[in-house]
Amino acid sequence: MAAAGVRMLTRSRSGGPGAGLRGCGEEAAPLRRGQVAAEGRKRHRPVKHQRKAQRLHVAYEAADGENGKGAEPLEAAAWEPQGWRQQLANIRTMRKERNAPVDQLGAEHCYDPSAPPTVQRFQVLLSLMLSSQTKDQVTAGAMQRLRARGLTVDNVLRMDDSTLGALIYPVGFWRSKVKYIKQTSAILQERYGGDIPASVAELVALPGVGPKMAHLAMAVAWGSVSGIAAVDTHVHRIANRLRWTKRETKAPEETRAALEEWLPRELWSEINGLLVGFGQQTCLPIRPRCQSCLNRTLCPAACSP
Question: Which of 232, 256, 262, 303 could form a disulfide with 290 if both were Cys (CB 3.0 to 4.6 A apart)?
Answer without folding.
Answer: 303
